[in-house]
């Protein structure tokens, strides 16, 4: 167990290092820079700007200096927003994405698990068909179609919510629902499949034969094994939900991390792009690790080596 | 590491199928029933075809796909309107007799643009899937067939790649080197091959020890011949199923990028681009969003139905229970 944790942490650190290196050099070999957009900048000012941000040093030196500041948890200054550090911007944007993500996760889990369990228990009834219709719809109708349609229906025509923004509590409803529904579909599908498989096994028959109530059979015995595929899926899915959906934040104009990332890439804001990439990667790896641990805890037959 | 196949939308399905595959699927001779004529076409494929035909949703999906593809291919030639034909007298015309699906801000006929956009969307879906298919099958087959240390190293690399935030890299690639449709194919294909590699590796590992493979080795065939002529044809089922399911996810990724303004660039168009344009003007002209959204979703529906149907029809495991 300890060995497993240690090797996974090492592996993650190695992967993070590779990501930082690859992104750093990719950014630098791309045509254009953070200051090329302002065409009118005179040569001397440009030189001063570059000197200020250390861009006049040789590339390898910039790279090692960046790694050095990373080791102190410092993501460096932003190139586009003068006088702001990447740490400040991330601290500003991340909570918005996290809040949206948590609401959506709540929607996804409650709806997905409920539908999946009901479908598995009432196999080949209308509930089952409804659940699988919902799951296929969720896989086939993307958020960038559902999102605008919901805005059209609930914000513009019915006027229940505002079409965009993140100021009022009511502004949370539509984005969370749209994002949550997209993830509820695969969760429902995986829950149904996993549960059906477990329910056919001998130990469930034994539990029933011993007179355990249906609720006990399902929630105490079957769910533990039946949810394994869901947990495996949830690792990367939670990372994606929490760090903000690019599309949802664009549609509803939410000032979160996803939108900031796309903008920063367009702006060639080197440090901000790198900071966001590192944040995403670290979160993704941490949640993958958590998913593995949860799976091992739920199924003792899975060995962590 | 986990013993189950992680990360994919399917949970553990891929690896579990791998364990079962070496029972009946890998022995086409035993599976053929007595009264069937001996000749080309294995009974596995024939059975699967019969099962597929009974699946109404899969048949619906297949027919819809053929209709959509044919319409995109042929439709633009039959239309009286050109793809870039500007008609400033009829801007934002609602759907009606003159323009069946209405027009946009420059008087472009929406139907023609939908069909042209469909060509691009379908082409991206197919080509990027072929990229993913080629890399994934070769990589997985080699890893599974050679085994040992090489396999361990290759699959560990896949594990690490799985843990990378790939959407982000695709976005970065498209921002920096964008406006290039070839790069779009490669970027999407490079993301999607990982799962294919895992599935194929599992299948090959399971087949490697089958008797008819030993027989092929005993006959003195080269390793390459055994792998490509004897093992891979028997992995065809899962490959076909997974390919059908990869196309919709590839098309989704393309539309996602186009929606963010990073995918297909004007003057070319795709369903993602049309959805993006439609979403900007939906308040007054909802048809500009409704029609592209509908045809895109309909195509994805059909692909998913067909993929699920093929999985049920070809999957040895599901035919048992």
Jot down its keywords:
heterodimer; A: 305 residues; mainly alpha; 13 helices; 74% helix; 0% strand; B: 321 residues; elongated; disordered N terminus; disordered C terminus
Radius of gyration of chain A: 24 Å
Q: Cα-atom Rg of chain B, whole angstroms?
A: 23 Å
Q: Assess the beta-strand content of chain B as a share of residues.
A: under 5%
Helices of chain B, by number, come to: 14
Compute the separation of the termini of chain A in Å.
7 Å
User: Tell me about the biggest sheet of chain B?
Assistant: none
Helix content of chain A: over 70%
Topology pattern of chain A, helix = H, strand = E: HHHHHHHHHHHHH
- Please, what is the oligomeric state? heterodimer
Structural class of chain B: mainly alpha
Total beta strand runs of chain A: 0
Gap from first CA to last CA of chain B: 30 Å
**How many individual β-strands of chain B?**
0
Note poorly predicted spans of chain B.
1-36, 316-321
Given the C-alpha coordinates, what overall shape of chain A results? flat
Principal-axis shape of chain B equals: elongated
**What percentage of the residues of chain A does DSSP assign to strands (E)?**
under 5%
Average predicted local confidence, pLDDT of chain B = 75
How would you characterize this protein structure?
The complex is a heterodimer of chains A (305) and B (321). Chain A is mainly alpha-helical. Chain A is 74% helix and 0% strand. In chain A, helix 4 (86-121) runs antiparallel to helix 5 and helix 5 crosses helix 7. Chain A is built from 13 helices and no strands. The N and C termini of chain A lie close together (7 Å). With 321 residues, chain B is mainly α. Chain B is 70% helix and 0% strand. In chain B, 49% of the residues are buried. Residues 1-36 and 316-321 of chain B have low confidence and may be disordered.
């Amino acid at each position: 167990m300890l060995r497993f944790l240690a090797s996974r942490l090492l592996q993650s650190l190695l992967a993070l290092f590779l990501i930082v290196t690859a992104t750093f050099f990719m950014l630098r070999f791309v045509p254009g820079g953070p200051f090329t957009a302002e065409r009118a900048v005179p040569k001397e000012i440009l030189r001063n700007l570059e000197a200020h941000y250390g861009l006049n040093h040789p590339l390898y030196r910039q790279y090692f200096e960046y790694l050095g500041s990373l080791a102190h948890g410092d993501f460096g200054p932003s190139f586009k927003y003068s006088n702001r550090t990447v740490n400040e911007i991330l601290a500003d944007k991340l909570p918005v994405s996290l809040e949206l993500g948590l609401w959506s996760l709540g929607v996804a889990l409650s709806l997905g698990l409920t539908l999946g369990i009901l479908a598995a228990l009432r196999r080949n009834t209308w509930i089952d068909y409804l659940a699988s219709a919902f799951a296929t719809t969720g896989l086939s109708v993307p958020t960038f179609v559902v999102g605008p349609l919901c805005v059209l229906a609930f914000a513009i025509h019915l006027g229940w919510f505002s079409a965009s923004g993140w100021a009022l509590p009511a502004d949370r409803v539509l984005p969370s629902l749209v994002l949550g529904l997209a993830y509820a579909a695969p969760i429902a599908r995986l829950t149904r499949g996993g549960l059906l498989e477990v329910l056919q096994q001998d130990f469930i028959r034994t539990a029933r034969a011993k007179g355990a109530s249906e609720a006990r059979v399902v929630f105490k015995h079957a769910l533990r094994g039946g949810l394994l595929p869901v947990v495996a899926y949830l690792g990367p899915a939670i990372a994606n939900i929490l760090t903000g959906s690019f599309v949802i934040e664009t549609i509803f104009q939410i000032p979160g991390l996803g939108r900031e990332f796309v903008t920063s890439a367009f702006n060639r804001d080197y440090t901000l792009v790198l900071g966001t990439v590192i944040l995403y990667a670290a979160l993704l790896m941490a949640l993958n690790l958590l998913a593995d641990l949860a799976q091992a805890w739920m199924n003792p037959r899975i060995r962590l080596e | 590491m986990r013993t189950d196949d992680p990360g994919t939308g399917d949970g553990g399905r891929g690896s579990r199928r791998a364990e079962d595959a070496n029972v009946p699927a890998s022995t086409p001779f035993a599976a053929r029933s007595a009264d069937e004529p001996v000749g080309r076409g294995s009974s596995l494929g024939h059975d699967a075809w019969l099962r597929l035909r009974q699946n109404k949703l899969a048949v619906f999906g297949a027919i819809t796909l053929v209709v959509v593809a044919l319409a995109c291919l042929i439709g633009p030639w039959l239309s009286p309107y050109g793809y870039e034909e500007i008609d400033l007298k009829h801007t934002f015309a609602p759907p009606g007799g003159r323009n069946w699906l209405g027009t946009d801000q420059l008087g472009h006929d929406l139907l023609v643009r939908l069909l042209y956009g469909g060509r691009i969307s379908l082409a991206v879906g197919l080509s990027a899937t072929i990229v993913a298919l080629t890399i994934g099958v070769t990589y997985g087959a080699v890893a599974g067939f050679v085994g040992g240390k090489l396999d361990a190293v290759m699959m560990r690399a896949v594990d690490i790649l799985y843990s990378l935030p790939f959407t982000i890299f695709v976005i970065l690639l498209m921002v920096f080197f964008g406006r290039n449709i070839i790069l779009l194919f490669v970027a999407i294909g490079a993301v999607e091959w990982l799962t294919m590699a895992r599935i194929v590796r599992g299948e090959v590992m399971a087949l490697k020890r089958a008797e008819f493979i030993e027989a092929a080795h005993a006959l003195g065939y080269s390793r390459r011949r055994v792998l490509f002529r004897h093992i891979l044809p028997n992995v065809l089922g899962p490959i076909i199923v997974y390919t059908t399911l990869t196309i919709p996810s590839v098309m989704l990724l393309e539309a996602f990028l186009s929606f963010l303004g990073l995918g297909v660039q004007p003057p070319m168009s795709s369903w993602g681009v049309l959805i993006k344009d439609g979403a900007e003007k939906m308040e007054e002209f909802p048809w500009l969003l409704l029609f592209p959204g509908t045809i895109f979703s309909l195509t994805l529906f059909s692909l998913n139905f067909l993929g699920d149907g093929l999985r049920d029809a070809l999957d040895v495991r599901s035919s048992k229970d």
